[in-house]
Write a structure and sequence with these properties.
It is a single chain. The chain is an alpha+beta fold and about 350 residues long. It has 8 helices and 9 strands. The chain has helices at about 85-90, 105-125, 130-150, 155-160, 175-290, 295-305, 320-330, 335-350; strands at about 5, 10-15, 20-25, 30-35, 35-40, 45-50, 55-65, 70-80, 160-175. A hairpin with a 2-residue loop joins β3 (about 20-25) and β4 (about 30-35). The chain is rod-shaped. The relative contact order is 0.06.
Length: about 350
């Protein structure tokens, strides 16, 4: 919509670059072009504004297929006005000189024209197509048919309208039919899901069985190895006992041999010692047999003195002294004097 301002009985119009403005004054065209800006008088000017940008038109309608099934078609038509002068001459694009708003509804007329044309071509192609084909390949078929039909429509170029593109968004059946069509696919999907579940369970059971078999085989192998271990332990114990017995027998034989050898050595040593002692005794006797009696008596006294016990102190009682004196008095005079001198020494050292 153009932007119009009033100043002292004059009006100023400023249009957008995507709007083509035509201004007639007293039946003559004085301004013609997009994005214009000019002054005019409201009482003498006739204005029209034609949009020249691309417009999107949503088209939605119902159709019936060859097997009498209702479907809903949703499409979008992109168009533009390529000849603003023709469009302004065929349709009412005049605007109010005070507000800049359209006095009519030209875009609605264009929308009705395009919708009816597109619907006519879509109904024509869907009426010869079954529901299954329409749902499977209908989008491309309807798009090509509607695009070709609008391009060949003679009224659109005569109105200055050009169709840029046609897009078919969807072709949908009635909700009940759609649910009925979904049922086989859902059943098949459910069957596939159930089959996958059963296969997964079968695989799980098979794996559990394999695991149980492996555990059982492991236990059997463990028991067999344990039996072999027990048997080998017994064999090792018997071998150790036999080796220990053999070692004890060897030690006993060695000890006996050593004892016998020791006994023999001791007997031989005792025999040699006895022979040596006998030889020494014989030699001693031979020496003494050749000696005179005085020498033998001296040796006897010497040996006797050597074997006497050591006397640290001697105590003589009066009775002993008296007896000794009596024996000494009966001895010779020289002997008496010596005995008296000897007796005087012990008497002096004796304790009472």
């Amino acid at each position: 919509m153009a932007d119009i301002t009033a100043r002292l009985g004059w009006r100023h119009l400023r249009a957008a670059p995507t709007a083509h403005v035509r201004c007639h004054r007293r039946g003559r065209l004085v301004h013609d072009g997009p994005g214009l800006s000019f002054w005019f008088r409201a009482l003498t000017a006739a204005l029209s504004e034609v949009p020249v940008d691309d417009r999107e038109l949503a088209v939605s309608f119902h159709a019936r297929t060859s097997d009498f099934q209702d479907v809903g078609v949703q499409a979008t038509v992109t168009y533009r006005i390529h000849d603003p002068a023709t469009a302004a001459a065929r349709l009412d694009f005049s605007i109010d000189p005070d507000t800049g708003a359209w006095r009519g509804a030209p875009l609605e007329q264009i929308a009705t024209l395009l919708t009816e044309s597109a619907q006519q071509h879509a109904l024509d192609v869907l009426a010869r197509t079954t529901l299954a084909s329409a749902l499977a390949d209908g989008v491309a078929t309807v798009r090509e048919r509607v695009g070709g039909g609008l391009a060949a429509e003679p009224r659109l170029p005569a109105t200055g309208i050009e169709v840029v593109a046609v897009r078919v968004v969807a072709i949908r059946p009635e909700p009940e039919v759609e649910r009925a069509l979904r049922t086989p696919a859902r059943e098949q999907i459910q069957q596939e899901a159930d089959r996958a579940t059963y296969e997964r369970r079968a695989v799980a059971v098979e794996r559990e069985r394999a695991i149980a078999e492996n555990e059982l085989a492991s236990k059997i192998e463990l028991a067999r190895r344990e039996e072999q271990l027990v048997e080998q332990s017994g064999i090792n114990a018997r071998r150790r006992a036999e080796e220990s017995a053999a070692a004890d027998a060897v030690r006993a034989d060695a000890e006996a041999s050593r004892t016998v050898r020791l006994a023999r050595a001791e007997a031989e040593a005792a025999e040699r010692i006895g022979a040596a002692r006998a030889e020494a005794q014989a030699a001693w006797l031979r020496v003494h047999s050749a000696a005179d009696p005085a020498t033998l008596h001296a040796l006897a006294v010497t040996r006797l003195a050597e074997n006497l016990p050591r006397i640290d102190s001697l105590t003589l009682s009066p009775d002993v002294v008296t007896g000794l004196l009596a024996k000494l008095g009966a001895a010779p005079a020289g002997g008496a004097a010596g005995a008296e001198g000897a007796g005087g020494g012990p008497a002096a050292g004796a304790r009472p």
